[in-house]
Amino acid sequence: MIHIVKADIFCTYFILNAVVFFNILGTLVLINAAFLLNNYEAQAYMVKAVLFTLSFFILSVSLYSDANDSAVLNGFEGEAKNAQRRISGLWHDVNNSNFKNGHLIVSQHGKQVFTAHYLEFKGIPFVEHGTGVRELDTITVNVQVTQQIPGWTTTGIHTLTLSADGQYLEGEYLSGGEKGPLKFKKAGK
Question: TM spans, by residue (predicted)?
Fold first, then answer.
């Protein structure tokens, strides 16, 4: 399928540039005829037409010479890789025994990541949500607490990395100058 994409790009540029080339050639013939007939108004019009067509031809050739379908190729390869290394989904908080009923939902759109996190710390409910980015297998999320545990801050940063087997998100939080570990286990598929 990737080779078809390459062939389609090449064929499109080749056909487009062939049409432009023959337009230039035809216009040059008409300019020559206008010069032979001493029709100065037609000559000026034809020169403008050739310059416009020639600039279009040069632009399209330069676009083709700079064309790089690595974005297309990387897109296909990236989709296959991300399918194996999917972060989106439901994760259970397995940090330590003080945290119960902990659930993290991660949603990814391109490099953007969105999270919603619920947990109970020593029986007290806590809710936060966040937005961030994914770089390779690491997400960095700025979180905002919407249901606070007394004494805890209301903003923070979570940095989580997908484990080699894809079953855990592990990392740390940074909040109010404090740091601590975070660990989530993948739930479901």
Answer: 12-37, 43-64
Give the count of domains, the chain: 2
CA distance to 61, 84, 98, 158, 170, per residue, from 176 (Å):
56, 35, 20, 12, 20
* 188: nearest Cα among 167, 157, 165, 160: 167
Domain shared by 91 and 74, yes or no: no
> Is residue 95 located within the same domain as residue 174?
yes
- Helix 2-36 with 70-84: angle, nearest 10 deg: 160
Q: What is the pTM for the complete model shown?
A: 0.55
Residues 61 and 140 placed together within one structural domain of the fold: no
| Environment class of 113 (CB within 10 Å of its CB; exposed 0-12, middle 13-18, buried 19+) | buried
Structure tokens at 171: 């990392």
Alpha-helical segments (H) within the chain: 2-36, 40-66, 70-84
Per residue in 142-186, pLDDT tens?
Answer: 999 988 888 888 899 999 999 999 999 999 999 988 899 999 999
N-terminal to C-terminal alpha carbon distance within the chain: 28
Tell which of 30, 61, 80 closes a domain. 80
Task: Name the domain boundary from 61, 80, 99.
Answer: 80
Q: Residue ranges of the chain with pLDDT lower than 50?
A: 1-6, 63, 66-83
